Amino acid sequence: MCHVIVTCRSMLWTLLSIVVAFAELIAFMSAEWLIGKAKPSNSEDVDNRTGGSQEPYRPTLGIYGRCTRISHMQLSRQDTLCGPYAENFNEIASGFWQATAIFLAMGIMILCAVAFVSVFTMCVQSIMKKSIFNVCGLLQGIAGLFLILGLILYPAGWGCQKAISYCGPYASAYKLGDCSLGWAFYTAIGGTILTFICAVFSAQAEIATSSDKVQEEIEEGKNLICLL
User: Fold this and answer.
1) Which domains does the chain have, with CATH numbers?
2) Model confidence band, residue 82 (pLDDT cutoffs 50, 70, 90)
3) Residue 173 — very low, low, confident or very high, per pLDDT cuts 50/70/90?
4) How far apart are CA 60 and CA 30, in angstroms?
5) Which Pfam family would be a valid example here (predicted)?
6) pTM
7) Of the four, 14, 41, 61, 226, which is 20 to 30 A from 159 by CA?
8) 33 close to 138: Cβ distance less than 8 angstroms
């Protein structure tokens, strides 16, 4: 018989697991890893409402994508175009970024699988006599290691030609040049930290769902057990 067990610690672990997976996925897909040096607007680009020139635009570069501003030949306006600059894996700008993409993708796949499984831990707490919380916590720890490897390798690719075109000639491995780090990089770091927090907190979720109070509720014949 399935017993639905909900505790504060198990629910918090589940929510954090889902948040971490989505945060890492969004960061990986974003083009906001590097913010390039400012490019001044053309003298012809004038804001019709204010009569002043537009502010300089800073293009962004991701692991496999980019955002840049394109000017229309016959219209006095500019549009921001975002999309992948690499049509396939081999066209990613740097070998280090290719390795980053592999490690991040592996970590994110594990995190997404754990996030999916975590939803069902309210009803199923063990499989083959192994605690699902402990297994998921171990997987989150492994995912965190993959994420760390990817984040360490990523700055090594700042010396590639693609990054130099955005960050200027002074850009090199682990040196930003004229670029600055975007929100996606910081999100990936924050998600990695939370991944290890989830891995540790999974033990607390397992303890909460197997406590004496839970066992007493089960012995009383309750199928829905909610504990603070």
Assistant:
1) 4-35+93-226 (1.20.140.150)
2) confident
3) very high
4) 10
5) L_HMGIC_fpl
6) 0.84
7) 41
8) no
